[in-house]
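Why this split exists: single-chain examples teach little about how molecules sit against one another. For that reason, every record in the complexes split bundles all components of an assembly together and asks for one structure covering all of them. Below is a record exactly as it appears in the raw files.
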Amino acid sequence: MPELPEVETTCRGIAPHVSGQRIERVLLRETRLRWPVSPQVAGLAGSHITGVSRRAKYLLMALDHGSLIWHLGMSGSMRVLPTGSPAANHEHIELELSNGQSLKFRDPRRFGALLYCDEDPLQHRLLQPLGPEPLADEFNTDYLYGRCRGRSAAIKTFIMNSHIVVGVGNIYASEALYLAGIRPTRAAGKISKARIARLVEAIRATLTAAIAKGGTTLQDFTQVDGKPGYFRQALQVYANKGACHTCGKPVRHLVQGQRSSYFCPLCQT
DNA sequence: CGAGGGACCTGGTTGC
DNA sequence: TGCAACCAGGTCCCTC
């Protein structure tokens, strides 16, 4: 599920409820996630959450000692509800807070993660090699065009590579390429600088618009208050089994890197 | 080094 | 109606 807009939505949603709170109790119902939940998590009662931030699709929770690195995987979501409210199915982790609220992590497919980190989480081996944030100044035409030089990989899988740029998942990769008029199968190294410039802007615009709508809900994703994200109605090509919204030609589907791609054969070249 | 595929999971939908 | 096959927001890691 969660691509950058969904993680950003989650981050903004939980921050006011968890920042500054003490962790009163930790409930671990299932620790077999993508990686086993770090053993230190079980002993976090008494710690304070000093802040919440996002890097790529990781949600970072600073504690008075160390920090937590969360990942929502494919099906993860977080909610804040009064402590004592019944646990939903697949609600694997719960942090009871000093304000009487609980942070609840639900993840049916268990591709998510919760890791404890002693030092700067940005230096963690999972975060250290990541490319720039797509909404930051470092992600610009010169950067992306430079990275594309000599690369034969399809542009769609290329922009989904977190070492190139973070946060662009399967939905928004298709959407951004549609907006930029670039076919997802085109080799990254064979796209002109002018078109790369369009792509950079398209990625920015797509992600920004999705954040404004609280992300995209296909199935599992919910905002912290339990509502879905509302960007689904704004999707142009992803999961569009009908006509291109621009030219009316049938949207085409193909599989790249075991993931579904959608594009318009007329508008995208 | 880069490209491509398997692996990790559960659950909803599709098709016979 | 029942059941198997397939598909779904991610991404690390291994092989070629």
